[in-house]
Amino acid sequence: MSKLDSSLPVAMFDSGVGGLTVLHECLVSLPQEDFLYLGDTAMFPYGSRDPERLRERIAAIAELLLDRGAKLLVIACNTATSIGADVARSVAAERGVEVVPVVEPQAEIAAAITDSGRVGVLATPNTVESGAYRRALEGQGRALAVTEVEAPELAPFIQQGSPFDESVMIMARGYCEPLKRAEVDTLILGCTHYPLVAPMLQRILGRDVRLVSGGHAVAAAVQRTLERAGIAREPGGEGSYGFLSTGDPESFRDVGTRFLQMPLGEVERIEIDGG
Fold first, then answer.
1. CB of 218 within 8 A of CB of 27?
2. Closest to 218 in 3D by CA, of 71, 120, 101, 132
3. pLDDT of residue 160
4. I need a labelling partner for 92 at 20 to 30 A (CA). Which of 13, 63, 66, 134 fits?
């Protein structure tokens, strides 16, 4: 298998704008790399979609991004990782491209930093029902008590860009109650939208509970993967980043700027076959 061109971009996708929290960390950690991000806002939210339909959609997205040229594929979506990481890996393997998902890197960090062994997972219904986090945590080589909580309304609320008011606090308190009862000392934010409400969750759970987001974990995994494959760019310089959206580009840019905390520039509207 010939080595991929190191000048190619890293491709990344999510059900909407939530994965921009992952892209943000990658842009900060790997400023020399180029990135291409696809937000499948036309199918948002993934968290309550039919899993088989999602698997078809994930395969189609992987094909599209790899057709555009990519040296690495990042699944910046917890639900997509849980439901269809195997599908994305199968598509990418045909091109000699590796896949970095979001679940395993988070589980690795959570297992390493928990003192009590009581780990919480806050995620979408599809992610929880898939058992992906539970399996990933069980594979970390230490005894862990895992408490998983479905938060079906949280990601859609954040995606809409609605103001955070007392109703959001009430929603968050309800989702956090089982986690507090379980006395978790570490919480995996099992959806890339959730870092935007991390301060709220921290206030409810208490400052001693460690929150594990996908951004830091995935950025580190991306760097390790590129270096191991010998396709990382040399440090120095500033790479480019571009955006594709299956929904309205203007809406994507407006909400996405809040997630990325950097200018988005032009967003290309695309259609995806499959799903």
1. no
2. 101
3. 79
4. 134
* Catalytic site positions: 77, 191
**pLDDT of the residue at 274:** 57
107, 210: one domain: yes
pLDDT for res 255 = 87
pLDDT at position 168 is 86
Structural domains counted in the chain: 2
Which domain does 221 fall in, by range?
10-101+216-269
Q: Are residues 223 and 204 in the same domain?
A: no
| Residue 104: half-sphere exposure toward Cβ, Cα within 13 Å | 11
Residues of the chain short of pLDDT 70, as ranges, are 1-2, 162-163, 274-275
Q: Do 117 and 55 lie in a common domain?
A: no
- CATH code for the domain in which residue 138 is found: 3.40.50.1860
Choosing from 198, 214, 230, the residue where a domain stops is 214
pLDDT score of 1:
44
Q: Are 11 and 17 in contact (CB under 8 A)?
A: no
Pairing assessment for the beta strands 267-269 and 10-14 based on DSSP bridges: unpaired
Distance CA(249)–CA(269), nearest Å, equals 6
Evaluate whether residue 70 is within a structural domain: yes
| Residue 169 CB-density burial (10 A; 0-12 exposed, 13-18 middle, 19+ buried) | middle
Q: What is the pLDDT of residue 2?
A: 52
Q: Are residues 16 and 113 part of one domain?
A: no
Of 214, 230, 254, which one is at a domain's C-terminal end?
A: 214
Residues 117 and 209 in one domain: yes
